Amino acid sequence: MSETGVPRTLALAWGLAAAPQRGPKRELTLERIVEAAIAIADAEGLAAVTMQRVAKTFEFSTMALYRYVATKEELHHLMLDAALGGAEVGGAAAEGAASGGGNFAPAASGDWREELGSFVRGLVEGYRRHPWALDISLAPDIHLMPGQIRVADRGLRVMRDLPLPPDAKLGVLSLLAAFARGQADVEREVLAGAITPAETRALIEEAVTPAQFPQVAALVRTGVYFGDPPAGETARDRRSDADEMLDFSTQVLVAGLSAILSEMPETPAEAESRGREPTPREAYEAAETELREHVELRKRTQRRVRELEREEAALAKARDRAKEFAKADARRARG
Asked: What is the greatest pairwise CA distance in the chain?
């Protein structure tokens, strides 16, 4: 618990916790610590993120980190919020730490169904870019952290004109968040190509008979139930299959919500709100939101351009090496 009475992790995330008075303040900040931890997790998984390992990134002692982050669990929750929500850790924009954030800005198509589908796919994409986030248990206060509130705000903006009371909209958000996490978890297992041990497989094949489980038995016999890939299927093919399944599942979710809304009568207050012009304050807030989302889109695009430039440079080096090998081989052949 911080001095303000707010849980320490929330105080850190919102910039309410004071920076340490002693220590390497210029070189080491909470933003850089979270950014470094995310980079390690992206490259090697969550288990590789230790206080000692993160401190080594900055060539500082582990104790130096403890002046900023009290526990590894606290660091994990800050990582989760920054990576999946684009959180501004400590009140300052942590663009590097938020490299996986910003996936949730819905495409402004004017069709809430399309925008909500884009929002859901963005949630799943965040987990795809940072699969280690699935290994972090959700704390009771995680939904109160800035990144998660930012995500909720974007989702609610998509649903702003839907004839649903506020608590129902929050319920829809909870449903979508749970779906995205579950979908990403299943994808991770499938894309990792987990293999069922032969003994376990033999047991299931014997126990699951057509008489007892007529629908599942056929899938067990063909191997589909164990996640066996079709002959010749590649990792790229599995990714494409995951995308198709995500699109289908998202369409089912959105179609179900649309069907429910079509049966709900519109209240007089909703009709009046739909028909009136926005107030100057509402128009300002809408313009501010649109500008903020455009800025975030530009930043995401710039980050992607930098990633592509690095990939292009690596490919060019590989091409040059291959070219030199080809020349050397040609010279040997002539000799």
From this structure: 90
Q: How far apart are CA 132 and CA 33, in angstroms?
A: 17
Cα-Cα-Cα-Cα torsion 224, 228, 233, 235, nearest 10 degrees, comes to 120
| Tally of structural domains, the chain | 2
Neighbours of 309 (CB within 10 A): 10
Q: What is the pLDDT of residues 206-224, one digit of tens each?
A: 999 999 999 999 999 988 8
Q: Are residues 123 and 162 in the same domain?
A: yes
Domain of residue 47, CATH code? 1.10.10.60
Residues 166, 49 within the same domain? no
Phi-psi region of 195 (alpha: psi -120 to 50; beta: other; left: phi over 0): beta
The tens digit of pLDDT for each residue in 30-46 reads: 989 999 999 999 999 99
